[in-house]
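User: quick one, sequence for these tokens?
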């Protein structure tokens, strides 16, 4: 049995101070300090006045530390799984780009294996297929030659591993395809990389879209006479929205407004590329040249191309610009994504859930990360 004392314990609806978190592979209890040992003796960790939070879940990571999910290299995925735990991430969706089907299938096969066998670091929960079913007009940093109309058979065939996919509802045959995928699989369909008007986006949401890929980025903007995809996502209560809170993709002056509208339907992600965690320089992004400078990644033509954000930094930025309580901010990358994936085994420190735990200092710097009770 293990114990963490002297920290603020983050729960779904508030924060507990002056207590001790007890865990083994699962969360066992929250007790008084005098009771340490009552569940059996073991390691006692001191949070030193910091934050004891559920492990973070990142739905949208392309790459990190030089590796990229789209490469389809098992060793790369294993290294990323371990590396992201430094940022407090305990489970994630390797996220593929708009690359050829054969390349995607190669990634899916590896992820299938890693899902079945488990990994040493952050657990791999499946794939986020961001493309190839997108609009060439809003391709962002995705490669146009690989873009396709929604292929229902492809999605159904791989629905054991694809948890989330981005679609552009205005493309040919999209609405029927969305309905069919929704009826036959558990894949979350996410609107993104789309030229959809407000009406087209609303039709997509009616057909079964329930999530938005990095709200504001690579979609039609909000205008008072044509509210675009952004408007449709903001007014649709059942649509969860991803946000890249690096303060570069979206002006942080909007964070409060977006939270006010979406509340617990907002999910912070990183959209991190292989340049994440590395020095400024030139890298590959799905066959294209990416230049990293500070917090900015761009293609040669200036297109913004993913981020180098870490999820703990996203939480810090969001808290800093909204003044929300820690438990409200942390829920955006823990309980929120777990709910979206229909996963009841993680996302909070409630009894019986996996002991995926992070100890942060008050500025969300990671002190320790545990996956299923094991210190990484
Ligand atoms: Zn992305």
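Assistant:
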């Amino acid at each position: 049995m293990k114990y963490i004392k002297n920290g603020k314990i983050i729960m779904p609806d508030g924060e507990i101070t002056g207590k001790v978190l007890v865990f083994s592979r699962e969360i066992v209890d929250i007790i008084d300090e005098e009771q340490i040992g009552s569940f059996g003796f073991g390691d006692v960790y001191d949070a030193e006045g910091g934050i004891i939070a559920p492990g973070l879940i990142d739905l949208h990571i392309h790459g990190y530390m030089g590796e990229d999910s789209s490469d389809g290299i098992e060793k790369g995925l294993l290294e990323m799984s371990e590396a992201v735990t430094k940022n407090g991430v305990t489970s994630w969706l390797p996220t593929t780009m708009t690359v050829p089907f054969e390349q995607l299938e190669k990634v899916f096969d590896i992820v299938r294996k890693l899902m079945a066998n488990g990994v040493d670091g952050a657990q791999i929960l499946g794939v986020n297929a961001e493309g190839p079913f997108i609009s060439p007009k809003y391709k962002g940093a995705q490669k146009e030659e690989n873009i396709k109309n929604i292929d229902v058979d492809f999605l159904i065939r791989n629905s054991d591993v694809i948890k989330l996919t981005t679609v552009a509802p205005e493309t040919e045959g999209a609405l029927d395809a969305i309905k069919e995928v929704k009826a036959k699989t558990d894949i979350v369909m996410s609107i993104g990389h789309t030229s959809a008007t407000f009406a087209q986006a609303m039709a997509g949401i009616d057909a079964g879209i329930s999530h938005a890929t990095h709200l504001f980025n690579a979609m039609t903007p909000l205008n008072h006479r044509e509210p675009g995809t952004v408007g449709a996502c903001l007014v649709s209560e059942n649509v969860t929205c991803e946000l890249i809170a690096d303060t570069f993709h979206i002006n942080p002056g909007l964070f409060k407004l977006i939270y006010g509208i979406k509340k617990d339907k907002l999910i912070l992600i990183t959209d991190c590329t292989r340049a994440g965690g590395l020095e400024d320089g030139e890298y590959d992004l799905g066959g294209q040249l990416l230049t990293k400078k500070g917090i900015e990644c761009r293609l040669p033509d200036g297109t913004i191309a993913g981020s180098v954000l870490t999820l703990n930094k996203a939480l810090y930025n969001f808290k800093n610009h909204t003044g929300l309580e820690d438990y409200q901010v942390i829920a955006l990358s823990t309980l929120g994504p777990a709910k979206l994936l229909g996963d009841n085994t993680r996302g909070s420190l409630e009894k019986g859930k996996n002991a995926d735990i992070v100890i942060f200092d008050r500025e969300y710097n990671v002190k320790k990360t545990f996956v299923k009770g094991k210190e990484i």
